[in-house]
Design goal:
414 residues, mainly alpha
């Protein structure tokens, strides 16, 4: 019915009849009903609305195959009216399941539904936060970036409402940072970015900026699977210090003392940058402005701010910079000599090497005659025999001529 040209009368009859299969006690009949309803939903989701409760009950079935098929059907049945119920069910099964393939599929489905049918921005943030806690490393980085962009740009466009949403995000993640002992890396990265950018908006009772900074300094010592997570936290610490004049924090000094010799070059660089910025508070304020993550960066392609430094270095004897297009024209005189004629330009030499030649024999056997002198010359030695003299009897060895000659010699001496 669903594979032919859609007929509303046939679809209505099929949808009304399919409830008998879904409500059956037999697993096979339920599976047939869920499969048929999934095909009808692809044509028109309205025919599945009356079966939503029955479909949700199929999730309690112990049959794993039926349960997965039902989850797929729920995903296809989702609309703005039932998205909260469906996502809640999907999150429950994500928490209960240990099958990595099923968990990865559930993470993808929840992400798509939250981005497509979110009833409010607060619900979207809470849903993704729960997903970060349960999904961990199964979540794509783009999901976290989309959430951070939403917080930075503002979901509504009204300054007051956007500020209220950012405050809600800060308070939410501040509570998680206080209670969670070992949150997943992706959640910790989002927490670090939000608190670093908008920590000043926190209104949680009993927490000041110094307390938030201390929490981040404690969190950086946790164990992370991704080494970059510690860099996110250190960046948040740097922003809070620079934007709120927390120059003399004891926790920050301890962090710098511990991690300035870290094996991670990224962490080392961040620590040394923070130390240099702490020595110049005004510069730190200029390079770390508040709420500037979405501002356009003006790039000076000519690097004119380095002109004074370059002129000073040239005046002290340093060589001037030569553009690549001018380098062939400024080849050093030493390279114009005959021995460097093949390298008259500065660059890579792609000329292949010559094929190796077979080496000549440059030695003589001991006692061999010099080829430059005739045989028998004065001072020379007779040439070595190149062949063996064959005995008279035509044989070698114990019974050969050589042995007989040796025996005759022995008798003569005897």
């Amino acid at each position: 019915i669903t594979s032919i040209y859609p007929s509303h009368n046939l679809l209505e009859i099929a949808a009304s009849s399919i409830s008998r299969f879904i409500s059956a006690d037999n697993h096979n009949l339920k599976y047939v009903g869920v499969t048929g309803l999934a095909a009808i939903v692809q044509v028109n989701p309205m025919y599945a609305a009356q079966h939503q409760l029955v479909v949700v009950d199929c999730l309690e079935d112990p049959d794993e195959t039926l349960k997965r098929k039902t989850l797929d059907l729920l995903f296809k049945m989702t609309n703005p009216q039932n998205v909260t119920v469906v996502v809640e069910k999907l999150l429950f099964h994500l928490k209960a399941s240990s099958d990595q393939h099923l968990r990865r599929d559930l993470v993808s489905k929840i992400t798509q539904l939250a981005e497509k049918y979110a009833p409010s921005n607060q619900w979207y943030l809470d849903t993704l936060t729960t997903l970060f806690e349960l999904g961990g490393n199964l979540i794509a980085d783009d999901t976290a970036y989309n959430l951070m962009r939403l917080i930075a740009e503002g979901p509504i466009g009204d300054e007051e409402q956007d500020e209220a949403f950012r405050r809600y995000a800060v308070n939410t993640y501040l509570k998680i940072l206080e209670k969670a002992t070992n949150p997943p890396d992706i959640l910790m990265q989002v927490i670090g970015w939000v608190l670093g950018e908008y920590g000043v908006l926190a209104t949680v009772e009993g927490y000041t900026l110094e307390d938030i900074l201390d929490l981040l300094c404690d969190a950086i010592d946790r164990t992370f699977e991704d080494s970059a997570t510690r860099g996110w936290i250190l960046a948040a610490i740097t922003k809070l210090v620079g934007q709120n004049a927390l120059w003399h924090s004891a926790g920050v000094k301890e962090v710098l003392q511990r991690y300035r010799s870290s094996q991670s070059t990224d962490i080392q660089q961040r620590c040394y940058e923070l130390e240099r910025l702490l020595a110049n508070p005004q510069l730190m304020r200029d390079v770390l402005p508040y709420d500037a993550s979405c501002e356009d960066v003006q790039v000076d392609e000519d690097l004119s701010f380095l002109d004074d430094f370059v002129q000073k270095a040239v005046g002290e004897g340093a060589k001037s910079y030569v553009p690549p297009s001018e380098r062939k024209k400024t080849v050093p005189q030493a390279l114009h000599s005959p021995q460097h004629a093949t390298h008259a330009t500065l660059g890579l030499n792609f000329t292949p090497y010559e094929a190796p030649q077979k080496p000549m024999r440059a030695f003589q056997l001991p006692g061999a005659a010099d080829a430059s002198q005739p045989a028998g010359a004065a001072g020379g030695s007779p040439p070595l025999a190149t062949t063996l003299d064959k005995p008279a009897n035509g044989r070698f060895g114990p019974s050969g001529g050589a042995t007989d000659q040796g025996g005759a010699a022995a008798k003569a001496t005897g």
